[in-house]
Amino acid sequence: MIGLISATAAGAAARDRLAAAWPGRARVYDGPVGEAVRAAFAECEQLVCFLATGAVVRLLAPLLGDKASDPGVVCVDEGGRFAVSLVGGHGGGANELAREVGGLLGAEPVVTTATDSVGMAGLDTLGLPVEGDVAAVSRALLDGEPVTLAAEVPWPLPALPVAARQAQGTPEPAEGTYAVRVTDRAVAPGEREVILRPPSLVVGVGASSGAPVEEVLELVEGALRDAELSVRSVARLATVDAKAAEPGVVAAAERLGVPLVAYSAEELAGVAVPNPSDAPLAAVGTPSVAEAAALVGGGELLVPKRKSQRADGRPAMATCAVVRRPARGRLAVVGLGPGARDLLTPRARAELRRASVLVGLDQYVDQIRDLLRPGTRILESGLGAEEERARTAVAEARRGHAVALIGSGDAGVYAMASPALAEASDDIDVVGVPGVTAALAAGAILGAPLGHDHVSISLSDLHTPWEVIERRVRAAAEADIVVTFYNPRSRGRDWQLPKALAVLAGHREPTTPVGVVRNASRPDESSRLTTLAGLDPATVDMMTVVTVGNTATREIAGRMVTPRGYRWQEEPK
Ligand code: SAH
User: Fold this and answer.
1) What distance in angstroms lies between residue 447's CA and the mean position of ligand 1's atoms?
2) Residue 413 beta carbon below 6 angstroms from any ligand 1 atom
3) Quick one: which of 60, 234, 304, 413 has the most CB atoms within 10 Å?
């Protein structure tokens, strides 16, 4: 819940706008502000105060405790110009809240947390448990002091501006240097070290009916302790369907704060394990529960099956096994839009900032370089190296990294998505971020040429035989569909566009409107409206798309307009 507190009429008006925008999420605290702030601080996860920062600082001072658990507090000034993240920037989410409030009220978000203001990922905002001196290591990162990143377990983290990276199995960073270590081993952070705990461990659990939660929990914790593994890296407990509701197992997962997943006996029976046995085979239909359930997703068996030990000497009621699962890398295929920064979607921006590796054509990398987090590894290449880029991106994701593969417009349209996904296997996560493709950017400039059915056709015959291209142009001509030509003409390919236009002219009037847009939304954008008969192909190049209307397309007030279908009957041909 977000507590809203105001003192003046202007504050109350802004407060009510937030309350209206957040039904069920916000609560208004009336009455004397001191009492209101104290009550909201005790009852809410976040506060928005329409009060001077000084007043709020004085009221909050005696209430502040731990920055990890205190509410995040945002102050908005009387004029509604600024939304200041005052305390709890990260832990309390005040930085995010300031941005959201800013968006809703048209106020400028003011964020002073160092890592946010230089675009660095805060060590405590990565979604992983952290241990150690976060403040000291963050300061070192910000000051550009050498910080070593030792990723013992690969995990798809955003970029960190570290000086050196250590791969798995390399020696410990030298004493006295700053370090970020990504590990599931139960080591304590050194003096100048932060440890990030990836959710890399899966604990398989088997249990007899009525196994007490203490017995299950002691077994699991003991197994982790003996293997020197951190309980904070446990991602989940895993078991067989028949035990999915076993109270001791369910409660153990709850106490560890992790989900419990269950698999069918059939599926578990198909998993190769080192220690199968007859007892579970008879009871639930699989020769292994703990080891098999832990190994379903693959990985390395760190703790083979072990049984609980009971103080009363009775037979064990629980078994467990621990597996380090393979890191799932993440490949984001991101469309950057046609060029203008404000046609890059917020989602594309977020994916660029979530990546630690960026793969793309050098000219597209230049388009967004300033948005990347410091420390992002950039793998850029020149024109033509498309398949190599696709392979590189997939290989980096397979190594467990968070990768963004970029393309202009939409990355799925004559671009990187298909070669990349042709290489990708199901051991990585893939997300696509759509972008404004050239045909749409050009359409908006020309008017409404795509108001009815339309196709895009690439005239590049580098990867497609000309016969195929021509057949498709002919089909579009016969079906009277609006056509946008991509890759229309280059120095070495100059006869294809005239040929394609001639095919269309066989089915459309010479006066059919044709829109030519060059560098849509880029600084040297230009566009012109002409006709099938009037288009001079020599004025077209590779920075251009050409949109040819259908028999219903008209020029109206200098704009290209294709009527919607329901106008069809009124315009007999
Ligand atoms: N993925 C891109 C298309 C890549 S093919 C997209 O979705 O837009 C390259 C062709 O796209 C160019 O030859 C040109 O025809 C067209 N194109 C890309 N960006 C353009 C822009 N800003 N203005 C005009 N045409 C563009």
Assistant:
1) 18
2) yes
3) 234
